[in-house]
Amino acid sequence: MSISKNTKQTSLTCFFLLAALVCASAGPYNFLMVPDRDSNKNIYIRKNQTVAFYSNPTPDDGHIESYYWSLPGTSEGFSDDQSPGLVTYTSDGEMFEVTLQIEHIDGNNQNCANPPNTVAYVVFPKLEFKRIGSWKIVDPMVPHKDVRIGVLLNDSVDFRAKFPTGHLPQSSEISWSGEQTGTGDSINVAFNAVGAKEMRMNVRGSETNSASITVANPTGLGEAAWLAPRPWYYFAAPALRDEARAWASGENNEGDARRHAYWNAIMTTDWNSADAEGLATAHEVSGLSTAQHNSVPMDLENNTAGRAIGSPGATRASLKAAVVGALNSGGLIILDNPTNSNEVGLLQPSNQ
To answer: Which DSSP string do the residues of 9-25 spell out, in sequence order?
Structure first.
């Protein structure tokens, strides 16, 4: 569609009604009306969320000839309708500017194009976390990953909202829900119960970001104390441990996941699942004082996956093949940052 280059202007009044879609899925539609956008025209959403744009321009004379909406970041990209209606933001990014240019015929039958008008800035907030030192973005929507924060019981984690420069809401417009509730651009959360937890960040009442958290708490005896009443494992336990270490090496990566899974698989095969779990958990308990906290839930989950693979009479070759299969299908867990400085690594499936 061509836009006239005629610089002659006549008075034109435009009214823009905007609605941000609360849920990302297609209808039924539940709209959060936002006629009270701030002076910077910000709308806060998350990736794959839908926004509806409507216009009702009224020229003082003449009639509207054409519309051109620029919609970067959406699957549509642009629209030449008076009102594009529902558009979905599918692109990665921090902020996208929505503009509308209107061309109309004035009372003198002259073609007049108004300059593009900024209708709104569609902003993707980021959610960051920190346990001991460094901030890191954690958001399963951008890009989509099945990531989790790993912590130990009674750990505290800081969460904060991050926005592009010049597009910050009021601190009172940011709220938190999930494991703990609060208002403001940051919150400190203590995790006092084991299991799967969640923290959600809401901007102006619309959920923009979320974080999943796994809280672990291995308890019981350490390795030496666990082995003391089981002398029949004195020689077998180190031998199986060394066998697993010889087959796979590494820390917080695919090799680490393979080693833990294979170790538990061969203990289950040679002994039984209960004793395999007992020694594997005792190993984690023994290392708690020096362990990276987010690596403990990773190890525990890989141990569990390995015991599910082990079976009486299974050959070593079949166990190794099953562990590799679990690794390739995402059945094991690794950290997205194996060096894990300041424990910024996020738990994620081994095929991501």
So the answer is: ---EE--EEEEEESSSS
Assigned token pair, 173: 């417009």
- Tokens representing 193 are 């119960």
* pLDDT over threshold 90, residue 315: yes
Angle ∠(276,279,283) on CA atoms, nearest 5: 135
| Residues ≥6 apart with Cβ < 8 Å to 317 | none
* 182 to 177, 186, 316, 348: CA distances (angstroms): 7, 9, 52, 28
| Burial label, 39 (beta-carbon count in 10 A; 0-12, 13-18, 19+) | exposed
Q: How far apart are CA 214 and CA 216, in angstroms?
A: 6
Q: How confident is the model at residue 228 (pLDDT cuts 50, 70, 90)?
A: very high
Report how far residue 288's alpha carbon sits from residue 291's, in angstroms, rounded to the nearest whole number.
Answer: 5
Q: Is the dihedral of CA 240, 246, 251, 253 positive or negative?
A: negative
For 237, 243, 264, 275, the CA distances from 224, given in Å and listed in that order, are 11, 19, 18, 14
The arithmetic mean of pLDDT across residues 315-337, rounded, is: 97
Phi, psi of 84 (to 5 degrees): -65, -25
Residue in the structure block whose two tokens are 């309708």: 81
Q: Which is it for the CA torsion 135, 139, 144, 148, positive or negative?
A: positive
d(CA 346, CA 136): 9
pLDDT of residue 62: 57
- At 140 the pLDDT is 57
Residue with structure tokens 């941000």? 20
Provide the whole-model pTM. 0.84
* 148 DSSP assignment: B
> Is the previous residue joined to 143 through a cis bond, with omega within 30 degrees of 0?
yes
